[in-house]
Write a structure and sequence with these properties.
This protein is mostly helical. The protein has eight helices and no strands.
């Protein structure tokens, strides 16, 4: 099952041609997905970038977070393993080099093309990536909250998703257990 099937996405972009509103980051990743339909490739690129945005929020992307991103992009993006690895690596590098300027633009693009239910599923994926190393740091939680706002989701959506990962929240772990950076 691809991410579009899972999230209920149609193959047609209801907002019309969005090529002019794409960011350079999304275009670079899309180019590597030339066998996918352009709309689907745009989604996968933006989705992977936003996942990497959360993973890198604490200035360190762990191997576990990288593997979680690859698995999520492969499973929900309907990509071959090699493509998912490539997309995640590109998204991580784009975020590292251009994160300050691209974060809002890429998330805005994802907001434009996603339905409310799709955005809620993306929010769950963000928490899953952040929890992959057994701890959601405060800064990762803050970035997820920021993305929630940029995706125009309500606070209750954020809380509902966050509650599924309560045991991973570094701020709620006992002293000595916390890996919050």
């Amino acid at each position: 099952m691809g991410i579009f099937d899972f999230l209920g996405w149609s193959k047609k972009d209801p907002a019309g041609d969005s090529a002019s509103s794409e960011t350079e980051t999304v275009r670079r990743i899309v180019a590597k997905l030339d066998n996918l339909e352009p709309e689907r490739a745009r989604f996968v690129a933006a989705f992977a970038y936003v996942l990497s945005r959360v993973a890198g929020a604490d200035m360190h992307v762990s191997t576990d977070e990288t593997r979680a991103m690859e698995k999520i992009v492969q499973e929900y993006g309907g990509l071959a393993e090699e493509q998912a690895i490539l997309v995640v690596q590109m998204a991580k590098h784009q975020n590292l080099f251009f994160g300050g300027t691209e974060n809002f633009l890429v998330t805005r693009e994802l907001n434009r093309i996603a339905s409310h239910e799709q955005k809620k599923a993306i929010l769950d994926c963000l928490f899953a990536v952040s929890a992959a190393d057994d701890s959601i740091s405060s800064v990762e939680g803050d970035v997820i909250r920021q993305i929630t706002d940029q995706l125009k989701l309500e606070h209750k959506d954020y809380i509902a998703s966050r509650s599924k990962y309560r045991d991973y929240l570094a701020v709620l772990k006992k002293d000595g257990e916390s890996t919050d950076r």
